[in-house]
Amino acid sequence: MTNQTPARTYPLTVACDGVGITIRPMTSADRAGLVALVAQLPEHDLLFLKRDITHPKVIDAWMRATETGELHSLVAWDGASMIGCTAIFTDDLSWSRHVGELRILTSPAWRGRGLGRLMMQECFIQALGLGLKKLVAQMTLDQRGGISVFEDMGFKAEALLAAHVADRAGRLHDLVLLSHHVDAVSARKDAFGLTEALGS
Fold this sequence. Notes:
The chain has helices spanning 31-40, 56-68, 115-130, 144-152, 182-187, and strands at 12-16, 19-25, 71-78, 81-89, 99-106, 134-140, 156-166, 172-181. By secondary structure, it is of the alpha+beta class.
């Protein structure tokens, strides 16, 4: 995909719940911080990811994918601690190359403080810059808090996959697929808090 908007300038320092945090693209140097962030997450939170990111090989694959451009990841830092990260997965060889699969992880200590919304705003800017037409996200149906954050930002439930995910104990969970058309973000920048960020 080609860039459709001016590139975002990083690192970006922003206020979140009264604390100055830094947001920037992920690099291979962030591996240890990512491992530490993942270790804080409840196991149930990991079910909406296609792979178990507690495995070192999966983390290594994530690092490689950011270097090749298959994944577009951002990280949020509070001092020396990674408190959040994002990933937009794209596939230029797919019939769905206009679609980005969005993943957002936040530290449990930072939930309810606006970090998830802030990171999602940055992902919208990334999606516009990548020329994507649609973002999709998935999570288990009982992850009500996460679903609410996405719905507040305009995502709509598009499909329900019954018994689609098995946790480590073998319990099955329904998976909900949410989507958002990126063009709607561009047309309603004020509603998403992006007018200043996009320079218009």
